[in-house]
Design goal:
Helix content is 77%, strand content 4%. By secondary structure, it is mainly alpha-helical. Strand 1 and strand 2 form a beta hairpin. Helix 1 runs antiparallel to helix 2. The longest helix is centred in the middle third of the chain and has 82 residues. The protein binds zinc ion.
């Protein structure tokens, strides 16, 4: 019985490792998908800023062309001032010149506004790109290590299963049956050590009488508080 109980502690260690691997096998794909999503979102954010910059450049070029045209019109009208013969013609021309000046100032302001926005946006994009590159690098490294671990989990589980079977054959059937039954619903922990007079699973003090029974290691004794098998291995 004593050997069975000691082997049971060994089995529990292996089962803990298998459980952790199973959890990882379930959790890693979601973690990898989350990393992919974060990378995609960061790239999208950069693309949006690039599109904004292109729009501003396009707007700037448009106003530049319009400004050149308006200035040419203004000059043309101003040149005609020397050719007019009547006051009426002169007044009409002045009105047109004013209109041209309005156009010049409108496109000049719009051009400068686009230029100012670009001057702010360009360094902002640069720092966003640098920040994203750094974060993306970390994320890709993390992703790579998750994928590698995920790929090796299958082999690890197989290895642990072999060790598990090798340990199980040394344990009495009734002990194994109790362990398998108590493990369920107890976060996989079916057997725990009695340590300093307390249960190693729920840390409740074990009454002294019961603790001495546990120390004998000659039958299955459960913690009355959490229902796990208690084993004393002298620690
Ligand atoms: Zn307990």
């Amino acid at each position: 019985m004593k050997d069975s109980l000691f082997k049971l502690l060994e089995l529990q260690e292996i089962d803990n490792q298998v459980d952790a691997l199973d959890r990882a096998r379930r959790d890693y794909p979601a973690q990898i998908a989350l990393i992919d999503q974060e990378i995609e979102e960061a790239r999208k954010q950069i693309q949006e800023q690039h599109a904004k910059r292109e729009d501003l450049e396009k707007t700037q070029r448009y106003h530049e062309r319009e400004l050149t045209a308006a200035n040419a019109d203004l000059k043309k009208h101003q040149d005609r001032l020397y050719e007019v013969k009547t006051n009426r013609e002169y007044d009409a021309l002045q009105v047109e010149i004013e209109t041209c000046r309005g156009r010049v100032s409108e496109h000049e302001n719009a051009f400068l506004a686009a230029e100012g926005a670009l001057e702010e946006l360009t360094p902002a994009i640069k720092s966003l790109e640098e920040g994203c590159a750094e974060v993306e690098n970390d994320r890709l490294k993390n992703r790579e290590s998750l994928s590698q671990r995920l790929n090796s989990i299958g082999a690890d589980v197989d290895q642990h299963q072999e060790r598990r079977e090798a340990v199980r054959v040394h344990i009495l059937p009734q002990v194994l049956a109790a362990y398998d039954r108590f493990r369920k619903g107890k976060s996989g922990l079916g057997v725990v050590r009695l340590a300093k007079g307390a249960c190693g699973g729920c840390f409740q003090k074990i009454p002294p009488q019961r603790a001495s029974e546990v120390r004998r290691n000659n039958r299955i004794i459960l913690c009355e508080s959490c229902g796990r098998i208690l084993v004393w291995d002298g620690t």
